[in-house]
Specification:
The complex is a heterodimer. Chain A is mostly helical. Chain A has helices at residues 29-51, 63-80, 82-87, 96-118, 126-159, 164-181, 187-198, 205-211, 218-228, 234-291. The radius of gyration of chain A is 28 Å and the shape is elongated. In chain B, helix 1 (14-26) packs parallel to helix 7. The chains are: A mainly alpha, B alpha+beta.
Chain lengths: 293, 811
């Protein structure tokens, strides 16, 4: 184990500073160092649980249960600290990638630590509430790992070297062109185009954002109406239809971008509040255990 | 018309005003000629509230006028008071049109027709030149401005830009920014925009199509009235609303005017300055030049020179310049005791590159230099250290450790370290003092200035550097004599980026040495050019054909604009025959390269896609200009979740401003090159920095030390758009406070809105902000440390395009 924890901090001098040059993701960090540590820990717990004889039976209140409980509670607090670590830019050598890697694998090991701590005694009480919340936090985190591992490439493909600002700018540019191109249209044809111009690309609510489906899209509606209409001058109408199609394509790209970004972020809105609920339930669990000792 | 004065001072900027004040204090009869109705027009034209910095800090101010960092109004107010208190005689509206006569009896005619007589003239007219004025009726109204300092000063206004050169278009684009809600019109007298850069014209056309500005060609202003402008258009006159007119009609550079007085310049190029004596006297006796025109763009220098020049004129021969104590400090630690001027003369006569340098130039170069005493055996620098300064041997000699137990001496008067100066790469060898010696270390900027200003110095440096570079590359197997014929008449070729130097299948046996820049080697495999290798400066190529006598077996082309030295095949062969060591070294290099080629070819058969990807990635990297990078940030978009923690970490590790834009930039095969500094071999930003504050640090980082004056030259010179002009935002509440109470903007760069609210009406000075590779932060670059998924990496092109990486990818 000693070699696993070897730090390369000693090399952090002014001329030969620690440099992260290795190109590897957080899951593969340092040859799966934290997966190995975490797996080893789980294995140790499972084996020792079977070997240690606790009378009358395994439960959270035995010395063994207290040990696991203390490790688990400590781990939960440390895992929560990632949110602070991520935002606190101190000047010493540390790698957020290493922290994320440890966070993921040690977080997963809590499934074993927490569950084996209960001695498989679950019920309708504050203790089980803490366990259930912990499992939910882990599940939401697992979802985070999955989206982090699968979505970035899609995000990159979709944006095609455009920034979010440029996507918005492209839509605004089409709007301006539509505005002048729609001048010769009849009032019946102009109304849906104006509605499309008024459309806020960010509107639509959480569900639309996550699904990427916007059934009430004014641009799509204008496109449908104008394709069927034959009231205005044909050439002018076709120009507007062409612009609407381009705008729709730009909107699709932006919406897909927002969808992927939302999927990469939404789980945090579950993971983080649940963590705080977990810490509250955990405090109640610990206090009540000591109170009724 | 007027009494002859002892001295006439032309230009009332910091230099001229300081000179006139000194003259007044000394009781000399004088006249200060100013073309406008106020003092110091250049600073007067700064935007309201702009902060003026007092750099360099170490230099003492020696003037009868006050000057300290402060807002434009404060400084101008002080100077107006000082001018009055010193009883300076100022003639306003006196634009000098012609100077005739000679020392003792100069005749100065102004544009208005006034005539002044003076025994001596001090020219302090700066370098701005005179902007061409509008010529239509109403052209003297105050809402016509000739420069835009900050587009954000204009909101919800009708603005007309007259003139369609680059300056005009850039100003128009600036004020046409959507958020400012201005109505912008740009006028062009002719039909097309022939004088402007294509990029600017394209941006303007796009802005026009998007309705951000109105572009009117074949249109000229006819009548200016407050709030309105009458235009002459192809279809008749038209009156439009107009609150502000920005006139960018070009300007007349002052050089022609200066030369018309008979003053000689140091050379024909644009950077040349008038030739000056140590007392600022030009080649015309009685005519003195000081300030920006003399090559000193900083206000403090200008003011000191104003004081000094009048003292000199008044016969004060004992006056030492204000930088005397700084120079004395430079020589202080040396074992011998000499006065500053003795030291300067000592160095000038002993060091070859200083032979043609004037005493005044010598002072300036020494201020940017260090002189140190080294005991026998002391290391001056180690092989592999970054560094771009030039060393000169004033006393003693140095030894170069070329190989194990093999050293080459460098004699007194010569130089070393010039490879770093020319190629920007790390030091190629360790250098020690061969005996107790005195070495002068000249900073890169000072050395480049020296080469530009003194042709003799340039010749010496070029010759020595070429000789050394060749010696270095061929691992010391050669002697200076072997290189004599090559160095005597070097075939140095400039190769623009992308140009092929050698084509696969060509005949030829010339060998090339890359002097600066870098090359890529490609080979046609299966009908597709496959990237084989990246060659940094200091490598050679073309040697395979000489040894084998066969055709060229790969194509070599320039990754960035480069310089190569061409050695004739016979010359090279003669060298090989004479020196078996060189032959061995060359053969070893050939064997290694051949092995690599065959490795890639074999991989191509079994892992075709991996080799293709490697090759295409390499091509992409080169196209993005990373061929001149030394350390660049890359983002693997297979891992990047778009959290922007890299940007936030960057801002929080510096003064609250991010030096990188993650999302912007090009992407290939999920490899993204964000907008962030690559720490170029030859940094474009360093090219023109008036206060000389951009340097290369010990880790190879290109950084800015404090002292930026906010001129924006570096930002404009950077081809990669990685330098911002921005003022540091105010201090944020602590992270814990934000986490617990939500107070403050949170991690990362605060929004402009928050900053604006904190600052109120205060407008801090915008200075250049760029990546310094987290210089001085022990943990290393924050962008990489703060990436939660490992998407961000920092690499040099050699590392990134190494064979190890290809093997990694193939696995």
């Amino acid at each position: 184990m000693a070699s696993l924890f070897q730090r390369r901090r000693s090399k952090a001098t002014q001329t030969e500073r620690v440099r992260e040059r290795r190109h590897e993701g957080f899951l593969r960090y340092a040859g799966f160092r934290w997966a190995k540590i975490s797996g080893g820990l789980c294995l140790l717990i499972i084996v020792s649980y079977a070997l240690v004889d606790v009378t009358p039976r395994h439960n959270g209140g035995s010395w063994y249960g207290y040990t696991l409980g203390t490790i688990g509670a400590g781990l939960i607090l440390w895992l929560t600290a990632l949110g602070y670590r991520k935002r606190k830019m101190t000047s010493t050598a540390w790698s957020l990638k290493a922290w994320t890697s440890a966070h993921v694998y040690l977080g997963l090991s809590l499934i074993v630590i927490g569950t084996w701590h209960t001695g498989f005694q679950l019920g309708w009480n504050v203790h089980t509430l803490a366990w259930a919340l912990m499992m939910l936090v882990i599940l939401s985190g697992l979802n985070g790992v999955i989206v982090y591992a699968t979505l970035p490439a899609a995000l990159s493909n979709n944006r095609d070297e455009m920034t979010q600002m440029q996507m918005l700018e492209a839509i605004r540019a089409f709007d301006r062109q539509l505005h002048s191109a729609a001048q010769p249209l009849t009032p019946a044809d102009t109304a849906p185009v104006l509605a499309a111009l008024d459309e806020d690309p960010f509107a639509g609510g959480v569900m639309a954002r996550l699904s990427g489906r916007y059934p009430d899209c004014a641009t799509a509606a204008a496109l449908r109406t104008l394709s069927l209409s034959n009231s205005s001058d044909r050439e002018a109408r076709e120009k507007v239809i062409g612009l609407l199609k381009q705008k729709e394509a730009a909107l699709t790209r932006l919406r897909r971008h927002l969808k992927i970004r939302a999927l990469l972020e939404i789980w945090l809105y579950v993971h983080v509040p649940l963590t705080f609920a977990l810490i509250a339930a955990l405090s109640a669990h610990i206090i009540s255990v000591f109170f009724y000792w | 018309m007027s009494e002859p004065v002892k001295v006439a001072i032309i230009g009332s900027g910091p230099a001229g005003l300081s000179a006139a004040s000194r003259a007044a204090q000394l009781g000399l009869s004088h006249i200060l000629l100013e073309k406008t109705d106020h003092l110091s027009d250049t600073i007067f034209k700064y935007q309201k509230g702009k902060r003026v910095l007092a750099t360099p800090e170490r230099l003492d101010l020696r003037s009868d006028c006050r000057f300290a960092e402060g807002a434009r109004e404060y400084i101008l107010g002080n100077w107006d008071e000082d001018a009055a208190n010193n009883k300076v005689n100022v003639a306003y509206h006196a634009e000098v049109a012609e100077v005739t006569g000679a020392k003792g009896a100069f005749v100065i005619k102004t544009a208005k027709g006034d005539v002044f007589h003076a025994e001596n003239i001090v020219l302090a007219i700066g370098t701005q030149g005179n902007p061409n004025r509008m010529r239509c009726e109403g052209a003297d109204l105050p809402h016509i401005i000739y420069q835009v300092d900050d587009p954000e000063d204009f909101k919800d206004k009708h603005i007309t830009v007259v003139g369609s050169g680059d300056a005009g278009i850039e100003n128009a684009l600036g004020v046409a920014e959507e958020a400012l809600e201005n109505t912008v019109t740009i006028l062009n007298r002719s039909k097309d925009f022939a004088r402007a850069k294509a990029k600017n014209v394209a941006d303007m056309t796009e802005a026009g199509e998007n309705g951000f500005m109105l572009i009117r060609t074949e249109t000229q202003p006819k009548l200016v009235e407050p709030g309105w402008l009458t235009l002459e258009t192809p279809t008749g006159e038209e009156r439009i609303e107009c609150d502000v007119i920005v006139a960018r009609l070009g300007s007349v550079a002052p050089r022609g005017f200066v030369e018309s007085m008979g003053i000689e310049f140091t050379g024909p190029d644009r950077e040349a300055f008038p030739k000056l004596s140590p007392t600022f006297e030009t080649t015309v006796p009685g005519l003195y030049v000081i300030g920006a025109l003399a090559g000193y763009p900083l206000i403090k220098h200008c003011m000191n020179q104003g004081y000094d020049v009048v003292e000199f004129l008044n016969g004060n021969k004992a006056l030492t310049p204000a930088d005397e104590k700084d120079l004395a400090a430079i020589f202080e630690k040396l074992p011998q005791k000499k006065s500053v001027s003795e030291w300067l003369e000592y160095l000038r006569t002993r060091i070859r590159i200083f032979a043609d340098v004037s005493p005044l130039q010598m002072r300036e170069f020494m201020l940017d230099s260090k002189v140190a005493f080294y005991s026998r055996g002391d290391v001056v620098f180690e092989k592999g250290e970054p560094g771009s300064s030039l060393f000169a041997i004033a006393d003693g000699h140095a030894v170069v450790e070329v190989g194990p137990d093999f050293t080459v001496p460098i004699e007194e008067g010569s130089i070393f370290g010039e490879v770093g100066l020319i190629s920007g790469r790390k030091r190629g060898a360790t250098i020690r003092a061969g005996e107790d010696s005195i070495f002068v270390e000249v900073s890169r900027t000072a050395a480049l200035k020296l080469m530009a200003a003194v042709p003799g110095a340039k010749r010496v440096i070029n010759r020595i550097s070429l000789e050394r570079q060749l010696l270095q590359i061929f691992k010391g197997g050669l002697t200076v004599e072997d290189l004599e014929p090559i160095v005597e008449d070097p075939a140095i070729e400039r190769v623009p980026a992308g140009k092929v130097v050698l084509a696969e299948g060509d005949e030829g046996d010339d060998v090339y040495v890359i002097r600066s820049g870098s090359m890529v080697v490609e080979k046609d495999i299966g009908g597709k050019p496959i990237f084989l290798r990246y060659l940094p400066a200091g490598s050679f190529f073309g040697e395979m054909a000489v040894l084998s006598g066969e055709k060229r077996n790969a194509t070599v082309k320039a990754a960035v604009a480069s310089e190569v030295i061409r050695l004739k095949g016979e010359q090279f062969k003669a060298m090989l025959a004479k020196r078996p060591q060189v032959r061995e070294a060359t053969e070893a290099a050939v064997a290694e390269r051949a092995q690599m080629n065959s490795f890639i070819e074999s991989r191509k058969a079994s892992y075709s896609s991996a080799v293709d990807l490697y090759s295409d990635t390499a091509t992409f990297i080169m196209k993005e200009g990373l061929g001149e990078a030394t350390d660049a940030l890359l983002i693997d978009e297979n891992l990047c979740v778009g959290c922007d923690n890299c940007e936030k970490a960057c801002a929080d590790s510096h003064e609250g401003l991010s030096r990188l834009d993650r999302e912007a930039g090009k992407t290939f095969a999920h490899l993204h090159v964000p907008t962030s500094c690559r720490h170029c071999e030859h940094p474009h930003c360093m090219a023109d920095c008036p206060p000389n504050v951009i340097h290369r640090g010990p880790d190879g980082e290109v950084f800015m030390e404090p002292g930026c004056i906010g001129c924006g030259n570096c930002m404009r010179n950077c081809p990669y758009g990685v330098i911002r002009m921005e003022a540091a935002p105010p201090e944020k509440p602590s992270l814990l406070r934000w986490l617990l109470t939500g107070f403050g903007p949170g991690p990362g760069e605060p929004s402009p809105k928050w900053t604006k609210k904190q600052l109120g009406d205060e407008k801090p000075k915008k200075i250049a902000v760029k990546c310094d590779m987290c210089k001085g932060i022990s943990g290393g670059p924050a962008c990489v440390r703060a990436c939660p998924t490992g998407a961000a990496i920092r690499v040099s092109p050699e590392e990134f395009l190494s064979i190890a990486r290809l093997e990694e990818d193939a696995d």
